[in-house]
Write a structure and sequence with these properties.
Shape: rod-shaped
Order of helices and strands: EEEEHEEHEHEHEE
Number of helices: 4
Helix content: 25-40%
Distance between the termini: 43 Å
Strand content: 35-45%
CATH class of the largest domain: Alpha Beta
Number of domains: 2
Largest sheet: 4 strands, mixed
Length: 184
């Protein structure tokens, strides 16, 4: 069974386990609330044991033969699962790809400004895709673009490493820098 829960503007898909009377097997492999295997029992007996303890019978592994069911507090279980998912999301870092364009004959001040921006992006943990743009007769001198690319890589070598080396594609030369992984 599947339902959708609204959380802010995000829609979360939560897969539900079958509980109590939703279970459709005649016999189940029963596990009690302490993790003890009680063996294969008829469904009615498993439901009765769960009701005696004031807990739910939850079908954990529906594809097993017979299905595995556990006696537990289902509301508490769902709460803990959602809490774990939120913790995992907090630790995730989405890596964004930023782009910076250079001309082959860039002036020193413009170069320093762009290097400063790239440095900021990399320190934030983002990838940076660098374009070196050739115009007109500049296109027949790719070595000038390679020289500029090597200078950029060298100037940022303390915090970044090359993910994709410089490649000339048409009127552009492009390469990607990523943050260096810190050794723990």
């Amino acid at each position: 069974m599947r339902f959708f829960a609204l959380e802010g503007k995000k829609v979360l898909a939560i897969t539900e386990l079958r509980i109590n009377r939703e279970i459709r097997a005649r016999e189940v492999r029963l596990i009690d609330e302490n993790g003890q295997n009680l063996g294969i029992v008829p469904l009615e007996e498993a439901l009765r044991k769960a009701e005696e303890k004031g807990l739910d019978l939850v079908e954990i592994s529906p594809n097993a033969n017979p299905p595995v069911c556990k006696i537990m507090d289902y509301g508490k279980y769902r709460f803990e699962q959602k809490k774990k998912e939120k913790e995992a999301k907090k630790k995730q870092k989405v890596q964004v790809v930023k782009e910076i364009k250079f001309r082959v004959n860039i002036e020193n001040h413009d170069y320093q400004t762009k290097i400063k921006h790239i440095r900021e992006f990399i320190q934030e943990g983002d990838k940076v895709k660098i374009w070196i743009w050739f115009r007109g007769r500049e296109n027949i001198h790719p070595e000038i673009g390679e020289k500029l690319a090597n200078k950029i890589i060298e100037d940022l070598s303390d915090i970044a490493m090359v993910e994709k080396p410089p490649v000339k594609e048409g009127r552009n030369m492009l390469f990607t820098l990523v943050p260096k992984q810190e050794k723990k």
